[in-house]
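Structure tokens please, single chain.
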Amino acid sequence: MNQEPELSRLVEDARNGSREAFRTLYECYSSRIFNFLYRLLGTKHEAEDATQQTFLISLHRIGSLRNPQLFESWIYRIARNEVYQKYRRKQVDSLDDDDSRAFAEIAEDPRLHGQPEKILLNEELGEALQSALNSLPLKMREVFILAVIDDMSYQDISDIVGRSLLSVKKDIYRARMAAKERLSRYLGPGSKASGQKSGAS
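Here you go.
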């Protein structure tokens, strides 16, 4: 949702108890939150559970959100907290690679019909991407996903994770280098795991 007046109106209505307004916010943001959680957690079941919990929490707490324009970063912070709660309960810092199929379960590309070798490469690359993500410490994984996959600015990421801009930039750079190294067998000479993001400060 890019129209600021519309977002402000919906958040304000939701704060005043409108379930219809909150439902619209859910429809606008649920897929992005799910994808963020899916890539962090690695399984659909956990991502679906965390997405539901994120929006339940936001429903109960939306009255405390003073600035409607901060809704996006606010709900990302709630989602992020859900991930860290799960990690605390599991008492682990990284996921088991064998449980990770997030990137492999991609939407079917009609251009790949009749080209099994390309489908296989897509699946292998998807698994390699998720494996590369899982190899990163959680604090690097989350900023990498927000920057490279969700295409957020460094400032927005800094606001979401509650860390300095410099710290965020350093971890994104380190994550890019680590991902590039893990994916090097799939990339041609001179390729990068991800290009520099336009509009980032």
